[in-house]
Amino acid sequence: MTYYCMMNSLPEDVAIKIVSLLHVRDLCSFSCCSTFSRQLSFSDSIWESLFTNRWPLFSSSTSNDFPNYKNWRKLYLKRHIELGVRARSVEKFVEASSRSESLEVRDYLSAVESLIGAKFGFEDVQKFLFNPKMNVLLNLVGVHYCLTCLGTQGDNLIEVLRACQISDRHVCVKWWKVGRWFYGYRMRDESHSRFVSLADLATEDDENILGVLRRGTVHEVLRVQISAVGHTSTPWYCQRQSE
């Protein structure tokens, strides 16, 4: 009671500044405490700040669409729901595209493009794609997006992967290159495979693998396949490397 009396006695701008430090879940709980807390928690300036901080890519590209928007809380909740639906569609796409826990790079990059098109924020990736119960290929799509599109620093990403308990999950990346020419004859196509953890990719210690995933099938690379590791259906070349 003393706390709410104190909040009531503060200037509105100071009270808003304090409340704006709350996470969304805590802010919603705070709004249920009193009429005053409800009015304060519904402040447009608070929700505008929450919106732009969570979705900087979306906010910068669409700022002209709502320069004088007056219900940022409604917009925030609407976008949160929309991205949840989009994340679920990406999950279904990956599940349908992956055969024997393996995914062709064209489908993998299509999943990444879906995140780019929706302008997911880092918090969205954590909420919707970094679940340890999900297929590791979905986790990998999230890591790829954070590194290449959001520019998330390796240490920050590693910390989140550990908190979500997926840093030690592994994938196997296999790619085929066009055979080299030798004295007028083209040799057999070359196959390469690497067994790597999500944490390894997050630190970009293995730029070679991340480069293969970014480029996909281009120039000399004929095919790229990404496989989950740790399943009974894991391809033999991944099983051998994991032993």
UniProtKB/TrEMBL annotation:
PROSITE patterns: FBOX (PS50181)
Highest taxon of the lineage: Eukaryota
Pfam families tied to this protein: F-box-like
Domain F-box: 4-50
Any GO CC annotation of this UniProt entry: SCF ubiquitin ligase complex
Annotated GO biological process: protein polyubiquitination; SCF-dependent proteasomal ubiquitin-dependent protein catabolic process
InterPro entries: F-box-like_dom_sf, F-box_dom, FBXO4
Protein name: F-box domain-containing protein
Source taxonomy: Eukaryota, Viridiplantae, Streptophyta, Embryophyta, Tracheophyta
